[in-house]
Write a structure and sequence with these properties.
The structure is a single chain. The protein is α+β, with helices and mostly antiparallel strands and 622 residues long. Among the domains are: 5-153, Winged helix-like DNA-binding domain superfamily/Winged helix DNA-binding domain (Arc Repressor Mutant, subunit A), CATH 1.10.10.10; 164-299, Rossmann fold (3-Layer(aba) Sandwich); 525-622. Helices cover 55% and strands 12% of the residues. Strands 11, 12, 13, 14, 15 and 16 form a six-stranded mixed sheet that branches. A five-stranded antiparallel sheet has the order 4-3-2-1-8, with no helix packed on it. A three-stranded antiparallel sheet has the order 5-7-6. Helix 24 packs antiparallel against helix 25 (575-587). The chain is elongated and about 85 Å long.
Length: 622
């Protein structure tokens, strides 16, 4: 088939990888378009998967699952239903058959399938005897009918007796506009949140960081499932146009690669949370979760959104995840815009709070300025929705900045009571437990986070940090190395591995890692601190003095954590000066100060009563 052609209402333009219908446009990936064209050329015929792979992928090693995903994308784009297909029919264990009439774009004669009345069909410009086609279709229909009959009388296996694990793969952006990725990414994250809070004691959901590793992947579903340790996978696509959105989703059982459920929703953007809850409820039914009346009521109570405010929320979080100063500031401005558009949006207030906290932690704003603003925002969020998991986790960080340790732990526990699948909640609780010297609990908590977010270098680094504070140096080192396997350029892993090596007296190795950290994230305030410390401990006193001098000068121009200046002083043996900088950090309500009771760098000060007093003021009760 050459040139453009029509399939029902759709205009197919293969050279542009484009589908058009009544003003709506869908851009397809090249391989997806090739699959469509090849099936359309063989209209009415069963095309075996093997032949499809050999033709479209030209000898490359491609699994059946890649073909399934291409066909799934086509169905979503054509608004087709696998259960009652209008365009592409699946012939179980064999392949696919294109069943819709096709015509040339110039209005030429449509290619029709055989009918009971005996009209002839033209396939690939060659006439085929009607009897042969009819017999072929009957024979093909028999195994298909047998398959569905078998499915009816032999239902799929019951889910595992223990906890069920599910992964939400990144929803595909069908707009064809890369600038709209924030919308599909945001929908994916919201879907993870909706499912994660569904029935956490029975259903575990892989966290966002690990799920997003599979964006635009060609990996087969069974391989993804092995890497994530899940039994079910949810995948789909989103497209929005003129105030409406079309969402397609399907649930795959990994054990037998069967598609258990699929649905397409076309709704007003105001109802996007309702759609997410409907998907969650459908999945609960498929994996045999028995939802309680309160759980059902929660799903039914999805609030409508102000579309413009929701878009600002998604853009805010999209930029916040960049973890750069510009990204955080841009994210903050979007969250503030969302609040101005919808003053009753709790997610926007939580985003404002998270932005201020991140700006303080990364030393872009003084803690004394940032945390009060964060507290004001997060309390507004919880006044609007006291069940918002993210907000309780954020409030725990605020209370920690105030050294209100009982309230910090209370909020950590409240977060995980609301959603035990919230990996970030386990991560933050682990940090609190480490600071409190409750090392066994801290390690157990962060291990739970790594189970929910197994491909996250952040979670693996946090495990290494918990082990470091517990003085389990060899295990800590191994965790940091695993984090760097996941992401060789992950700055915190290089930084913390440098800390581990220094604590173990391996200063040459420490220096190498810290220099890598500096190259990956130039300008980060933590790197000079530990570099200066290692310079001093490895005999490079002059270099250490140079770092200290620069940090002091910088503290005259902007906020610099006294905690980090003290680290360099300790390396140089200037313990009195280190105590002075720690006292200054205490007065500035420094967020980092609560690590002094467990961080190995500060061991030389532990016999000093002034340091012990500072620990009592700054750290959680041991």
């Amino acid at each position: 088939m050459h040139g453009d052609f029509r399939i029902g209402p759709w205009l197919v333009q293969p050279s542009l990888n484009l589908l058009s219908q009544d003003g709506a446009t869908v851009h397809l990936e090249p391989k997806v378009m090739e699959v469509l064209v090849f099936l359309a050329q063989r209209v009415g015929e069963v095309v075996p998967r093997e032949e499809l792979i050999q033709t479209v992928w030209a000898g490359a090693f491609v699994t059946d699952d890649v073909v399934k995903r291409c066909v799934s994308v086509l169905r979503s784009a054509l608004e087709d239903d696998a259960r009652e297909p209008r365009f592409i029919e699946t012939i179980p264990k064999r392949g696919y058959r294109f069943i819709a009439p096709i015509s040339a774009n110039d209005g030429g004669e449509a290619v029709q399938l055989p009918t009971a009345e005996g009209r002839q069909s033209r396939l690939r410009l060659k006439f085929i005897p009607l009897l042969g086609i009819s017999i072929g279709l009957v024979l093909l229909a028999l195994p298909a009918g047998g398959y569905f009959t078998w499915r009816h009388f032999h239902p799929r296996p019951l889910p595992p007796a223990g906890k069920i694990m599910l992964a939400v793969l990144p929803f595909q952006n069908l707009t064809g506009d890369p600038s709209q990725e924030y919308f599909s990414d945001g929908f994916t994250e919201e879907m993870i949140t909706a499912l994660g809070g569904l029935q956490p004691e029975r259903l575990g959901v892989i966290a966002r960081t690990s799920a997003m590793k599979y964006k635009h992947t060609d990996k087969a579903v069974d391989q993804i499932a092995r890497e994530l340790g899940v039994q079910y996978v949810l995948e789909g696509s989103v497209r929005r146009d003129a105030g409406r959105t079309r969402i397609s989703a399907q649930l795959i059982q990994v054990q037998d690669q069967s598609h258990l459920w699929a649905e397409t929703y076309q709704r007003d953007l105001r109802d996007i949370f309702r759609v997410q809850n409907e998907v969650a409820e459908a999945i609960a039914g498929q994996i045999r979760l028995r939802l309680t009346p309160p759980e059902q009521a929660k799903l039914a109570a999805a609030r409508p959104v102000v579309p413009e405010a929701h878009e600002a929320d998604l853009l805010g979080r999209f930029n916040w995840y960049k973890r750069t100063r510009d990204g955080m500031m841009t994210g903050l401005s979007y969250f503030q815009k969302a609040v101005s558009l919808d003053p009753k949006d709790p997610l926007a207030y939580t985003g404002i709070a998270d932005s201020y906290i991140a700006l303080a932690v990364f030393e872009y704003l003084p803690p004394s300025q940032a945390f009060p603003l964060a507290k004001e925002a997060v309390l507004k969020a919880l006044a609007l929705d006291d069940t918002l998991v993210d907000a309780h986790s954020t409030l725990a960080q605020v209370y920690q900045s105030e050294r209100n340790w009982a309230a910090t732990e209370q909020q950590c526990k409240r977060t995980l009571a609301l959603n035990p699948n919230y990996a970030l909640g386990h991560y933050r609780y682990s940090l609190f437990l480490s600071r409190a010297g409750r090392h066994a609990e801290a390690v157990a908590e962060i291990r739970r986070a790594t189970e929910l977010d197994p491909l996250s270098p952040s979670m693996m680094t946090a495990l290494g940090q918990a082990l470091l504070m517990a003085r389990r140096y060899e295990e800590s080192q191994q965790s940091m190395l695993k984090a760097l396997e996941l992401d060789p350029n992950y700055f915190p892993a290089h930084l913390m591995l440098g800390d581990v090596y220094a604590a173990n007296g391996m200063f040459a190795q420490s220096l190498t890692e810290l220099q890598k950290a500096a190259s990956v994230s130039p300008g980060d305030p933590q790197v000079p601190s530990f570099l200066g410390y290692v310079y001093a401990k490895s005999g490079r006193k002059q270099d250490a003095e140079g770092v200290l001098k620069e940090m002091k000068a910088e503290s005259q121009r902007r906020y610099v954590s006294g905690f980090f200046v003290a680290v360099v002083c300790i390396g140089l043996g200037k313990n009195e000066e280190a105590l002075q900088w720690l006292e200054r950090a205490d007065q500035q309500n420094d967020y980092q100060l609560s690590w002094i009771s467990v961080e190995p760098v500060f061991d030389p000060l532990r016999s000093d009563s002034r340091f012990a007093d500072l620990v009592r003021r700054a750290d959680p009760p041991q």
